[in-house]
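Q: Sequence in, structure out?
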Amino acid sequence: MASGQHRAPRARWFGRGRTRALLSAGLLLGTGAVATSAYWTDKETVPGVTVHSGALHIDLPGSNRVRNETYAWSGFDLTGIAANGSRVATLVVSNHSDPRLSFSYDVKAEAADVGSGNLAAALRIRVWRGGVTTPPNPTCTGTQIAGPGASTFPFNQPAGANIAPGGSQTLCVEVSRTGAAVNAGSQATLTFTFPAKQVP
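A: Exactly. Output:
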């Protein structure tokens, strides 16, 4: 009789605890179910917009229309550029895409030292959409793509104007060197890239 009374309270305590645990789990599942059901979808139609598909191709002078084409920039010699000096040159960018494909494009440039030189860090670049004045001191004219200051590398700026099918734009590039000391014999490579994107 005494041992029976001792076991009964423990059985009731265990039962209540187990019930509470199951109810707690049920509340957690209920919360999850409410959260996952609160999703809404909607869509709208914008009239009057047509996107034409085709082959997008941006051309440099004398290109052979292959992907990742390269162009040897003739007449743009930076050899012996003096401290605080600059050199300018132009480059024509053309749209030879399939019919009706206009595109926008960016101008990217990177400078890298060759060997142990330190010339790349002393170079700056500015780009204009336009032409160049005549020698003996040619300068770029038109709309400047980068800000008013000489931009450091890597350079990455939108050209700021779309090119229609069959159209072209002339870019004027100015490369300058700061007055920072450069080791004798330093060499650097300067690479330009023109990523293009279709414009609806």
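Residues 2-36 form the longest helix (35 residues).
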